[in-house]
Design brief:
24% helix, homodimer, six-stranded mixed β-sheet, Nitrilase/N-carbamoyl-D-aminoacid amidohydrolase, 14 strands, alpha/beta, globular
Chain lengths: 294, 294
């Protein structure tokens, strides 16, 4: 069982749900996500991660379609269903959701604990045609204090930016949950590990944090998704998955989140976050004002 | 043949030398490094990368030992030998070197072109007992304009910090050369890819840059090095190596450095460096003043 006492030893059973939402069928998608949550709970899961945009599907044709399918947080039907499940089973859920907020639509994730909505993350780095439908994230990279540890969220393409992991780690995250709808990368060799998995491993290792990725599978309006959901430990090694590229399934792992703090010390001289040379990095990494070579 | 016209198509043959220097035997180490350079030239190499500290070996017992073995740049014997070889064969050499500069000793790399010493990089992130002998790098993350493209250098543990790759990319690097003396990481699964290789792939992919790692092999005063030299393309995939964990060898690849600029565009909306959310990253990444969770 997990504990929320910071620094205490804890074993947390984490489940990443790899499923195939259907575009536009919110009711069925939410019901199916709840079935997977129940299955994960039967397997002892205390934290369940669901894929990106899993209430609506991904491949919108127009902004209007996305807007009509989106829901407000925390009042909408998917959030309410997940909140009920989290309360019923005393678990934490992190779920990708198409969110409407006033006139804006966001590619978001809700973090929900046993007592309700903990917080929302909004995808900072939009991929491809998402740019046509969504506003960019405006909530930074928040770290949520939950009964399942200190959790940050990154959505799919966000992990292409090592800054995402770094900001999470610098704010104390033990675990980064990654709802995803990964698509094939150009030039990916067929037999190689998915680059998304490589990036999850790298982000986990360099920051001594756990990373739990719940990707989707299936095909939607010509777009294929690659599955390969994976849970990576704080040393950067997969401890569950990568899952199949094309089947719905749940990957499960027991994580001792305390190791995310302890294992940052690599030896008697080195500690991954303290070794950063902020004096060298200067302002360049966070600044728009320096000339860049693009 | 390569060309130094920026933006032009170019094919550059790059060699990474995986060798086993012997601690303290500078004359023999330099002679051996030249043999490998000659061998790489016979195979058509136009840029040759040599391992970290390859003039002296790695496992110093005292600072005095390191200081006595170190040499000044560019006047010392190793730099002179590499300069002569670069001139003779009209190539570029990037070589790890134990450098003495006044009272300071640095874990450095020299960049040498056909007309002589181009510049020096000094390791920013010191590993383990290096802290006892070396000063930290004080030259930033420079990008050198050479006949073999725009080259940045990172040494071994430097690539544990994604900021290193990012700073190189933001300053226009086409290729990051990585002289290394990688040691086994705790908890590395025996059958898995070396984490150092994962980090090279991730750094290359996220920045659309080539990465060429020349690691050492062998054992020295109880320390084992892991080899696995690798050349990674701008998409993040190994195109030569990983080499063996324990044999001296040369890995070779032909790189079109122009792809480091062209392939940053992933589709009609996304470009890896432009997609960065510097407004979100803010000052945290380059600042010492924010409270961090270590």
């Amino acid at each position: 069982m997990h504990t929320d006492v910071p620094g205490a030893e804890s074993s947390l059973r984490v489940a990443c749900v790899q499923m195939a939402p259907r575009i536009g069928d919110v009711e069925s998608n939410v019901a199916r996500s709840i079935e997977f949550v129940e299955q994960a709970v039967c397997d002892g899961a205390e934290l369940v991660v669901l894929p990106e945009l899993c209430n609506t599907g991904y491949a919108f044709e127009t902004r209007e379609e996305a807007s009509n399918l989106a829901e407000e947080v925390p009042g909408g039907p998917a959030t309410r269903a997940w909140t009920a499940a989290a309360a019923k089973h005393a678990i934490t859920i992190v779920a990708g959701i198409t969110e409407r907020s006033g006139d804006a639509i966001h590619n978001s994730a809700v973090v929900i604990g046993p007592t309700g909505h903990v917080g929302t993350y909004r995808k900072n780095h939009l991929w491809n045609r998402e740019t046509l439908f969504f506003e960019r994230g405006d909530l930074g990279v928040p770290v949520f204090r939950t009964g399942a540890g200190r959790i940050a969220v990154a959505i799919s393409y966000d992990i292409w930016f090592p800054e995402t992991f770094r900001l999470a780690a610098l704010q104390g995250a033990d675990l980064v949950c990654v709802p995803a709808n990964w698509v094939p990368m150009p030039s990916q060799p067929e037999e190689a590990m998915a680059m998304a998995n490589v990036l999850a491993m790298s982000g986990a290792h360099c920051n001594a944090m756990f990373v739990a990725c719940a990707d989707r599978v299936g095909r939607e309006r010509g777009e294929t998704f690659i599955g390969r959901s994976v849970i990576v430990n704080q040393a950067g090694w997969p401890v569950a998955g990568p899952a199949s590229p094309d089947r719905e399934e749940v990957v499960l792992a027991d994580l001792n989140l305390s190791d995310a703090r302890r294992k940052r010390a690599l030896n008697e001289f080195n500690q991954l976050l303290r070794d950063r040379r902020t004096d060298v990095y200067g302002e360049m990494l966070g600044s728009d004002t320096r000339p860049g070579w693009y």
